[in-house]
Design a protein that fits this description.
Mean pLDDT: 93
Radius of gyration: 18 Å
Number of strands: 10
CATH superfamily of one domain: Dihydropteroate synthase-like
Number of helices: 9
Strand order of the largest sheet: 8-7-6-5-4-3-10-9
CATH topology of one domain: TIM Barrel
Helix content: 25-40%
Distance between the termini: 11 Å
Oligomer: single chain
CATH architecture of one domain: Alpha-Beta Barrel
Strand content: 5-15%
Length: 300
């Protein structure tokens, strides 16, 4: 998968990132093609309340996603993940069309490849419809940028898949910790015309402890099925390590411990087969980057 498009390709990014394509088990760099994982850092257009340990890093930008993106840009992630949650009726009830202004401003604030996510865990009855409208508008408005947009689910995917296909974007396919469901959603997206190289699979990330074990085992089984020859299990996998910063155990935690929690879960996700890891704490990004720098990656 290629995320981002440079000016000669019709976009405005300074470079592109490639994810996926491994031909061995995770970290078996001595056996064959095993591209370097992609590290993403997140920007939220609206987050209340932000955990106290993150205010140390983001206090001055937390109410301004454009400045937040500029700060993240200086931390040099491979990919910027802009999460637009303000469109939910339970958050700010912002119109999807108005939210496009934030996407456009962030695209101007950084030249790094961009991932745009909407409401990741719909709660309100209108959340899914808002997601579909917003992501369709993103795909149509920013044609040629080769964004990664999502989530789409087995219940709601057609509108976004068609818009992504027509406008040259990639899609984040989200399912609920079930290998067969993930493969079925891939099949549905392929039937719509998307290639597997334009689909990133999110099997849902649980928090450290009992929850994350379900995620890791699902990712492992998906990755192994792909290596055994199941074509529909060859899409790149993404792991949202940032989920571990919003757990009860860290409510009164300090920044160093929080980054250890997030970095530890990120490494677990990588070992289970993640091709992309999305994080929020800037110290986590540096910890995981130092870790993967120890390996002789091939093909990335």
């Amino acid at each position: 998968m290629v995320i981002g498009a440079t000016e000669p390709e019709g976009g405005s990014r300074g470079y592109v990132v490639e994810a996926g394509g491994a031909e061995t088990l995770p970290f078996y760099t001595f056996e064959g093609l095993n591209p370097r994982p992609v590290l993403a850092l997140e920007v939220y257009d609206c987050v209340e309340p932000l955990p106290s340990f993150l205010l140390e890093s983001y206090r001055d930008v937390v109410s301004n996603p454009v400045e937040w993106a500029r700060l993240v840009d200086r931390l040099e992630p491979d990919l910027v993940n802009l999460n637009v949650r303000s469109i939910s009726p339970t958050v700010l009830d912002r119109s999807p069309r108005d939210a496009l202004k934030t996407v456009e401003a962030v695209l101007q604030a950084t030249r790094r490849p961009l991932m745009v996510t909407g409401i990741m865990d719909p709660i309100h009855r209108d959340d899914t419809a808002r997601n579909m409208e917003f992501l369709r508008l993103v795909a149509e408005t920013f044609k040629g940028e080769r964004l990664l947009i999502g989530p789409v689910t087995p219940e709601a995917f057609e509108t976004v898949a068609e818009a992504a296909l027509a406008n040259g974007h990639n899609v984040l396919a989200k399912t609920n910790m079930d290998v067969n469901q993930a493969i079925r959603l891939n099949e549905l997206l392929v039937e719509k015309g998307l290639t597997l190289e334009r689909i990133v699979v999110d099997v849902t990330t649980g928090a450290l402890g009992y929850g994350v074990e379900y995620t890791l085992s699902t990712m492992e089984r998906f990755r192994i099925r792909g290596l055994k020859g199941d074509r529909m299990a060859r899409s790149p996998l993404i792991f949202f390590a940032s989920e571990n910063l919003f757990i009860r155990e860290l409510e009164n935690g300090e920044s160093g411990m929080a980054s250890i929690y997030e970095a530890s879960s990120a490494v677990a996700g990588l070992m289970a087969g993640a091709d992309i890891v999305s994080m929020l704490h800037p110290e986590s990004l540096e910890k995981v980057r130092r870790f993967i720098d120890e390996f002789p990656w091939r093909g990335g």
